[in-house]
Amino acid sequence: MIVTEDLCKSFGDHKVLRGISQHIVKGEKVVVIGPSGSGKSTFLRCLNMLETPTSGKIIFEGTSLTDGNCNIDAIRQKMGMVFQQFNLFPMLTVKDNITLAPMKVKNESREQAEETAMKLLQRIGLPDKADAYPGQLSGGQQQRIAIARALAMNPDVMLFDEPTSALDPEMVGEVLAIMKELAEDGMTMVVVTHEMGFAREVATRVLFIDEGIVKEENEPQAFFSDPQDPRLKDFLSKVL
User: Fold this and answer.
1) C-alpha torsion 60→16→217→56, nearest 10
2) Element (H, E) at 14
3) Which of 33, 42, 191, 225 is spaced 20 to 30 Å from 84 by Cα?
4) What are phi and psi of 209, to 5 degrees?
5) Which strand (E) or helix (H) includes residue 236?
6) Global pTM?
7) What is the pairing mode between strands 14-24 and 188-192?
8) Euclidean distance between CA atoms 73 and 213, whole angstroms
9) What would you measure as the largest C-alpha separation in the chain, in angstroms?
């Protein structure tokens, strides 16, 4: 589904990504971990061209995103993105936040978009919040709404950029529960997170990025029980 070839990204003289080559197949749940400043979020944001790579290739469902000719807006309709900050429109109700993109971008009727929105709100356990405004909700509720908003576009893959890092500890579980449910339903997911329990339980593959390169990758059991890279061993000793 997603292929990166020798992906590099620099900000001025600072090299953030130093050549990442990955194949992410349909149905995979790839969890990316690593220290702060290692390039994890930059890698994720390059996948849908929120950051433009300095060099290398990104191919999504057979379409090259880096050759300058693709319609990136059309591609992004297939790639749901959930950020650290919820980025909900504060002046719109929850229902209007969810229906806006399907109506504006996919030309869905209001009736159709609202029907989908209510199904999604039911799914995330917040059907009673349809007419509330983001400022009236907890952080955990807002992030669940942000996930529902991304799902409303019926994406082929979901990208999560540290979706729980801005939440109070007691709200983390409710967001991770929705993400686990998505994984069980077969959604292709790429998740940057500090939640090691989620990585163990949900990932099909875990990547450890440090200093802009993938230093180790493996299925969760071997990744956490038998790490090979010295930097990964050190990292896990501090976070587990």
Assistant:
1) 40
2) strand 14-24
3) 225
4) -105, 130
5) helix 230-239
6) 0.95
7) unpaired
8) 28
9) 55
What is the C-alpha to C-alpha distance for residues 136 and 139, in angstroms, rounded to an integer?
10
67 falls in which pLDDT band (50, 70, 90)?
confident
Give CB contacts under 8 A, 24+ apart, made by 196-203: 196/33, 196/224, 196/236, 196/239, 196/240, 198/31, 199/31, 199/33, 199/223, 199/224, 200/224, 202/29, 202/31, 203/29, 203/30, 203/31
39: left (phi over 0), alpha (psi -120 to 50) or beta: left
CA distance 56 to 63: 14
Question: HSE of 168 in the Cβ direction (CA atoms, 13 Å)?
Answer: 7
Mean per-residue pLDDT, 132-154: 97
Tell me which residue has tokens 């038998």: 226
CA 72 to CA 48: how far, in whole Å? 8
Q: How does pLDDT run across 189-227, given as a tens digit for each residue?
A: 999 999 999 999 999 999 999 999 999 999 999 999 999
